[in-house]
Design brief:
Layout (H helix, E strand, L loop, with lengths): L1 E4 L5 H14 L11 H13 L4 E6 L2 E10 L9 E8 L8 H15 L4 E7 L3 H9 L3 E12 L2 E11 L1
Parallel strand pairs: 4-5
Antiparallel strand pairs: 1-2, 2-3, 3-4, 5-7, 6-7
Helix pairs in contact: 1-2
Length: 162
């Protein structure tokens, strides 16, 4: 496994992973799949802000990706970021998520960040456990804040001091 900075040529595979997660899980609270143009805009916005987009490469394929961005727009929150990590369905449970999240910590610290936030669907038990193993602490649950697949969803907020 190789963890590296993503390039624009990785975006079709990133899009495939993202859209599969949207279509089949509650990890992303959206029911609309993304377009390649939207992924390009997201990637360029991260790049212009000096924020990382990382990929886990397995052989010649992308197994997953991670990134972080501002948690809240107000000035007082400028030292806090929220991360995201998504793994290709056939690569889940093999350590890619852990490696991609761990690779974000030094990047965030280099940018002067103090706290990293994770917001995870309450039914994503494996993700919740992984984040706890990585030093994230649960700080609250937002009850029934999203609706997807015909049901209300709870969102668990977790944080880690960098």
């Amino acid at each position: 496994m190789l963890i590296r900075d993503a390039t624009s040529s990785d975006l079709p595979e990133i899009l495939g992973i993202y859209n599969d997660v949207v279509s089949t899980t509650t990890a992303i609270y959206d029911e609309r799949v993304s377009t390649l143009e939207e992924r390009h805009a997201w990637f360029e916005a991260r790049r212009q802000q000096g924020l990382p987009v990382l990929v886990a490469q397995l052989n010649d394929e992308i197994a997953g990706f991670s990134s972080f961005g501002e948690w809240r727009a107000r000035w007082g929150y400028r030292y806090t970021v929220e991360h995201s990590v998504h793994i290709r369905r056939d690569c889940r449970g093999q350590g890619f998520g852990r490696a991609l999240i761990e690779a974000l910590f030094p990047r965030a610290a280099q940018l002067g960040m103090h706290v990293m936030i994770a917001q995870i669907d309450s039914e994503a038990i494996a993700s919740l456990r992984l984040h706890e193993k990585l030093g994230f602490e649960p700080v609250g649950t937002f009850r029934q804040v999203a609706h997807k697949f015909g049901r209300w969803l709870d969102l668990v907020a977790m944080q880690r001091t960098l």
